[in-house]
Amino acid sequence: MSYSQLEVNPVSxxxxxxxxxxxxxxxxxxxxxxxxxxxxxLNAAGEFNYFQNNNLCSNYFGMNRGILMTTGHINHAIGxxxxxxxxxxxxxxxxxxxxxxxxxxxxxxxxSINLYDAAVLEFDVxxxxxxxxxxxxxxxxxxxxxWMSPFYADVFCFFVSEINGxxxxxxxxxxxxxxxxxxxINNLNGCEIENNAPISPWTIRPYSNIFQMPAVNECLYIxxxxxxxxxxxxxxxxxxxxxxxxxxxxxxxxxxxxVILDAVSGSWAGVDSGIFIKKTNSSTSLDLDFEWSAPIYxxxxxxxxxFTPSSVDVDNVYYWDFDNDGVTDSNEMNPIFSFSQPxxxxxxxxxxxxxxxxIESIAYELNIDIDxxxxxxxxxxxxxxxxxxxxxxxxxxxMFEKCGKxxxxxxxxxxxxxxxxxxxxxxxxxxxxxxxxxxxxxxxxVNCLENEAIYYEKIMIL
Length: 462
Fold this sequence. Notes:
The chain is mainly β. The protein has three domains: about 5-280, no CATH class; about 290-370, Immunoglobulin-like; about 380-460, Sandwich (Immunoglobulin-like), CATH 2.60.40. The protein has three helices and 28 strands. Strands 1, 3, 4, 6, 9, 10, 11 and 13 form an eight-stranded antiparallel beta sheet that branches.
């Protein structure tokens, strides 16, 4: 039985396990993570829970839960701290030329030093809205205080790069470590940052007796030799909680690489370090907006307008009010509404995200008159089209009369993009193969080119 208030739980190398851990502890519900890959021993990473016990800790550790990644076994993060050089040597070399050169540039290692015993979590992340995430990080190590060295060190990095496009001006294809101490921490607790480097026992440290070198960022450091500060923590030293931020732009795709490793001479990497990390809060904006199509006038229905929101998420619930009476007229994501009379209308949209609990709303004034209608449905031709089956999943047949010799048939998605277009001659029916079209709601539009009549039907493809 353990009396420690730090509990750790290793995770297996499965996408489902890591996905829930990443979303719950790091990025929140308004994002999606894909292409998850973990490199390292399965006992080197997992989740942790911390329960304060004043009999064991003279100072509060600073975090209550999150992800723990180590260069050894996560159990070595648990106190009591009765071994100054505790650790687990996996003796597995990690080949990453970019990271190696990155650490050389910061003079944390020399070119001849190799990387060992890495725990690496990589994944792609996409945000459905403008999302600002605050992370809290504690770095602990048994390299404190005697094994601190400017030539080799345990190091933690949180790399972010943008992939498949260039939307975010803060990132590109070259990975950026958002947790370089000088870049993120700015006079935390009055501490002046003396360097701009990744987090390691050499960049946040007390005075080095071995190398007779001054302390760096010492106000971030807590001495825990023999459990002096918190005997529930197994590391000889650790940092105060350090705050970092990452903002994600909607529609941008990012690649994240979280890594902690040991840089060693030879192959011995038996002294552990660990990183405790979690999000402290997530300020997420739905970046709400919506667009509408040009009105299409129909003598029977009136002015027909389609609406498209900017925020698309399966967790969103949409409340559309088209006549400003406070009553929801539609809960569809992409609704179509018919205004019976011309005039000025206040159209409002409220979006509730059931995952994050965020609620946002926006309203616009919509002016509708005869001149605003782009096309005139039927245009005096007393006729309609027949579409069957509807819903459909393999084919859809459209029948029409009195359209003349030349007829254009279009299938248009809810954004207004034409995904199918053909012109037929001397026929009053046509069958469209829809087997390769994504399920959803579409418009089937029939343009009678001779008499300039236009007909449409809303269809569902399964």
